[in-house]
TrEMBL record, chain A:
Belongs to the binding-protein-dependent transport system permease family. FecCD subfamily. InterPro entries: ABC_BtuC-like, ABC_transptr_permease_BtuC. One of its GO terms (molecular function) is transmembrane transporter activity. One of its GO terms (cellular component) is plasma membrane. It comes from Paracoccus kondratievae. This is ABC transporter permease. PANTHER family: ABC TRANSPORTER PERMEASE PROTEIN MJ0876-RELATED, FERRIC ENTEROBACTIN TRANSPORT SYSTEM PERMEASE PROTEIN.
Automatic annotation (TrEMBL), chain B:
This is Cobalamin ABC transporter substrate-binding protein. Gene3D superfamilies: Nitrogenase molybdenum iron protein domain. It holds the Pfam family Peripla_BP_2. PROSITE patterns: FE_B12_PBP. InterPro entries: ABC_Transporter_SBP, ABC_transptr_periplasmic_BD. PANTHER family: HEMIN-BINDING PERIPLASMIC PROTEIN HMUT (PTHR30535:SF4), VITAMIN B12-BINDING PROTEIN (PTHR30535). It comes from Paracoccus kondratievae. Residues 26-278 form the Fe/B12 periplasmic-binding domain.
Length: 332, 278
């Protein structure tokens, strides 16, 4: 594969994300013209329109971009590190554990006392689950052990989340179970962007330098070690980076499944199966998928707060089945 | 043969009439709204239990009156053991429980949800009838109508526009009790303008565009919930900044009892303040 084709792929994805970001800004129940909306975004026009664009649509679009990029990047890195196509934050319980951390922070009142408690608790939940999965599935991450560990952690975290919400004195808390399991970007504000963005930035920064090591790992751990990859440090960076990305994303948007699974698979051929090149491509691809899904929930059922996870699962689950058939054919 | 059948029929009808003539002596209510109607109308000692919510001052307008009575939680076993000879229930009560109680030969009276004044009057009359307290029910309605008349002054000039906005962005139109309350107080309702006569989820964007004169917010419950977080959204705060905001206090807004007049009075005050203001 030539460098130029890779650049072309990345440029195409950037353009796609930019178009979807703009479309996300222009989609909403308040019928406003495109020109009018963009003028309002820059502070011109009716006060209410300015408020809608800046306080409702802009945070929603930004979060769609960030959450999608976080999910796509985590999926690509996990699959590269474990050399297992089934690794994904949703499947191995990272998202569910991050949800549990977030729910605990909200319902103990910790997040009301200190705004950063929410993402930090989500990060702690995510980190704990990644450590558990790596321990249970082993460094090589055999498919069966990985999936079993993931199912167990997901189920346990989901049950604890539901328990906390059911015990809440607030009659509306139990409804939230849906949000934490399927994710949504409805009615988020700039506050949520500020809560999640610093953590996600740290996550991106931690995962970005692992690309070279992931590339080396395709030759096996010994070969990687011989070219100077320090496995212990790589594992630590990976846990910290993924926990920060998924913790930040889940704290503000709930757990959105399948993005981290599907996106790296779709893009793998376009980057000639290079794990290093897959990382940025998947981040962009994830952002495009979540932005598109978030536009679709608003177009399909306006005003109903259809959850993001519903759409990603509708697309992702059949893809997952296809993956099973493919792995079986290949006799893995 | 025919004569004997007639005799038996006559006996049964006679028995039934006799039974109807005797007011029930152990009445149990399993719904917050029937609790309050029964508390207002029942004879001393006639009501043996009310639902657990009736004694909760954050939901019930008659928490003090309900406190001394044993509470039930709408469970079939629990209700059966209290041996009521009449159970009054609401339209939202569990149909399974009601069916089971009827199979256990306990008569159950299900009261519909009151969505307007006619519904409130009908439920008061019906509660009076099933408790054998018709005169008390008539008196209650007469007082309700007199109090209502005191609050009904036609709004001078155009009616201001109000929006009801509760947890999860739920708004109510005129086909709901809350909608009737703000209509009686002299407001037009944003939800009706936006095609939600019975109520539904109103997107925050549409609320901002509609730009109501008064924002009537749902009350906050203890503990956290995402749906409640919406009421703290910066955009909603910005809308409420230069407007009057009223918070619905559940006890007066939830059930179709004469207590809704307190909510009507509160909203009427808000309207008068708006119309006197700049």
């Amino acid at each position: 594969m030539t460098q130029s084709r890779y650049s072309l792929t990345i440029a195409g994805l950037v353009a796609l994300v930019a178009v979807l970001f703009l479309a996300s800004l222009l989609t909403g129940p308040a019928a406003m013209g495109a020109g009018q909306s963009l003028a309002a975004l820059f502070g011109r026009g009716d006060e209410m329109l300015v408020l809608i664009m800046r306080e409702l649509r802009l945070p929603r679009a930004i979060l769609g971009l960030f959450v999608g990029a976080a999910l796509g990047m985590s999926g690509a890195v996990m699959q590269g590190f474990l050399r297992n196509p089934l690794a994904e934050p949703g499947l191995i319980g990272t998202s569910a554990s991050a949800s549990l951390g977030a729910v605990l922070a909200i319902h103990t009142g910790l997040s009301a006392a200190w705004a950063l408690a929410l993402p930090v608790a989500a990060l702690a939940g995510a980190a704990l689950s990644v450590v558990l999965v790596l321990m249970l599935a082993g460094p090589r991450g055999g498919a069966l052990a990985l999936i079993l560990a993931g199912i167990a952690i997901s189920a346990l975290a989901g049950a604890c989340t539901s328990l906390v919400l059911n015990l809440s004195p607030n009659p509306f808390a139990a409804n939230e179970i849906v949000f934490w399991m399927l994710g949504s970007l409805a009615d988020r504000s700039m506050l949520h962007v500020w809560i999640a963005a610093p953590l996600m930035a740290l996550g991106f920064a931690a995962l970005w330098p692992t690309r070279r090591a992931l590339e080396a790992l395709t030759l096996g751990e010994d070969a990687a070690a011989s070219v100077g990859v320090h496995m212990g440090r790589l594992r630590l960076m990976l846990i910290a980076g993924i926990a920060a990305l998924i913790g930040g994303a889940t704290a503000v948007a709930g757990s959105v499944g399948f993005v981290g699974l599907v996106v790296p698979h779709v893009l793998r051929r376009a980057v000639d199966a290079s794990p290093a090149r897959l990382v940025p491509a998947s981040a962009l691809g994830g952002a495009a998928v979540v932005l598109a899904a978030d536009i679709a929930v608003r177009v399909i059922a306006p005003g109903r707060d259809l959850k993001l996870g519903v759409l990603t699962a509708l697309v992702g689950a059949p893809f997952f089945l296809h993956l099973i058939l493919k792995t079986r054919r290949e006799g893995l | 043969m025919v004569a004997r059948l007639g005799l038996i029929l006559g006996l049964i009808v006679g028995l039934a009439q006799h039974a109807a003539a005797q007011p029930p002596r152990r009445v149990l209510s399993m719904n917050l709204c029937t609790d309050q109607l029964a508390l207002m109308l029942a004879a001393p000692g006639q009501l043996v239990s009310v639902s657990a919510l009736a004694a909760d001052p954050s939901s019930s307008a008659m928490a003090k009156e309900a406190a001394p009575l044993p509470a039930n939680h709408g469970l079939t076993e629990e209700i059966y053991l209290m041996q009521p000879d009449l159970v009054v229930a609401g339209a939202w009560s569990s149909p399974e429980t009601i069916r089971l109680l009827q199979r256990l030969n306990i008569p159950v009276e299900v009261f519909p949800v009151e969505n307007d004044l006619a519904g409130i009057r009908a439920n008061i009359l019906r509660m009076g009838k099933v408790l054998g307290r018709d005169a008390e029910a008539q008196r209650l309605i007469a007082r309700f109508d007199a109090d209502l008349a005191l609050l009904s002054d036609p709004a001078p000039g155009p009616r201001p526009r109000a929006a009801l906005y509760a947890v999860n962005g739920y708004s109510s139109g005129h086909n709901s009790l809350a909608g009737q309350i703000i209509a009686l107080a002299g407001f037009d309702n944003i939800a009706d303008e936006l095609g939600l006569p019975a109520g539904g989820i109103l997107a925050l964007e549409r609320l901002l565009i509609a730009d109501p004169d008064l924002l009537v917010e749902g009350r906050r419950y203890p503990g956290a919930a995402r749906g409640q977080e919406l009421l703290e959204h910066p955009a909603l705060k910005a809308l409420g900044q230069d407007k009057s905001t009223v918070v619905m206090s559940d006890p007066d807004w939830v059930c179709g009892t004469p207590y809704i007049l307190r909510a009507v009075a509160q909203m009427r005050e808000a309207r008068l303040a708006l119309q006197e203001g700049p």
